[in-house]
Amino acid sequence: MMNGQLSGTSMIWMCIVMGIGALILIIALGATIYMVIRLLIKKSRVEDRPLMMLKERYVKGEINDEEYRQKRKSLEE
Q1: pLDDT tens series, the chain, 77 aa
Q2: pTM of the predicted model, to two decimals?
Q3: 5 SS3 class
Q4: How far apart are CA 14 and CA 33, in angstroms?
Q5: Tell me, what's the pLDDT at 40?
Q6: Cα–Cα dist 77/73, whole Å
Q7: What CA–CA distances, in Å, run from 48 to 35, 36, 42, 73?
Q8: Residue 63: helix, strand or coil by DSSP?
Q9: Distance in angstroms (rounded) separating the CA atoms of residues 69 and 74
Q10: What gap in Å lies between CA 55 and CA 49, rounded to an integer?
């Protein structure tokens, strides 16, 4: 470095390092978003599964209206 100027090679290396840093940041952000979405989807599936099974039993006629209401109320509590 002479007179406050960067040489061509220094500029290239600086751009490469900044590009790698940006790439790492983008990958970390993407991985975080992916994991949050995956956990939210998994949580909603687990919570809705018993209610879905109850509705299926009701539709098939395995339980009557009163049983359905009682079991749904207990699931929602």
Answers
A1: 455 567 888 889 899 999 999 999 999 999 999 999 998 887 766 667 888 899 999 999 999 999 999 999 888 87
A2: 0.50
A3: strand
A4: 29
A5: 84
A6: 6
A7: 20, 18, 10, 14
A8: coil
A9: 9
A10: 10
Report which residue type is found at 22: A
Helix ranges (H only) for 1-77 are: 8-60, 65-76
* Residue type at 19 in one-letter notation: G
Measured distance CA(61)–CA(77) in Å, rounded: 24
Please give the structure tokens belonging to residue 60.
């098939």
> In this structure, what DSSP letter does residue 61 have?
T
Query: 17: how many CB neighbours lie within 10 A of its CB?
Result: 10
User: Tokens 């809705």 appear where?
Assistant: 48
Q: How many residues make up the chain in this entry? A: 77
Residue 49 tokens, joined: 């599964």
